[in-house]
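Interim report, section 4.2 (structural modelling).
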Amino acid sequence: NAGVTQTPKFRVLKTGQSMTLLCAQDMNHEYMYWYRQDPGMGLRLIHYSVGEGTTAKGEVPDGYNVSRLKKQNFLLGLESAAPSQTSVYFCASAETETSTDTQYFGPGTRLTVL
Amino acid sequence: GQNIDQPTEMTATEGAIVQINCTYQTSGFNGLFWYQQHAGEAPTFLSYNVLDGLEEKGRFSSFLSRSKGYSYLLLKELQMKDSASYLCAVMESNYQLIWGAGTKLIIKP
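Predicted structure of the assembly:
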């Protein structure tokens, strides 16, 4: 079991460029999440998915889009990157949304937007 | 509004005991989580409390008081590998997690 994997691990973009971050999980989890982590702040939820074909907005969705075409994959897209999107992005998955199920995190993607 | 507070940084000595506090104000409550995050790595689950009281798991224990909006993580017999950030997170009524900024724990020999 690889758990939750993310690609790429690092990326540098110029303002206005686009990119897609890929998250994959092999635990057959229904729920998947995209967070960003910035210095001095807690993890903030960008978007999440409660199952294949579904997506929903989290706390900070502006500037991002997501897709969950397959149960095991959750993609995060930046259509026109801005310096404010420089951050570490974590994907997580959980079997259900209930409080008894913990979230499992991927290793993160470090994104710098110049 | 939503707010989770925990100290920014703490220092402790190898072999000692340290308590990391977390206070919260959130919309609803479905449990409180503690995660450990080593520098440059992903958060990993440590503990979960939904009822008042102490949950013990080896060298780590977590306490919750819902009436006070308060939790602490207690680490005993500290080891150098415990140097990490400890994240407090509360699950709200909508089952989304609200995260504190984390407490960086520095262990000195």
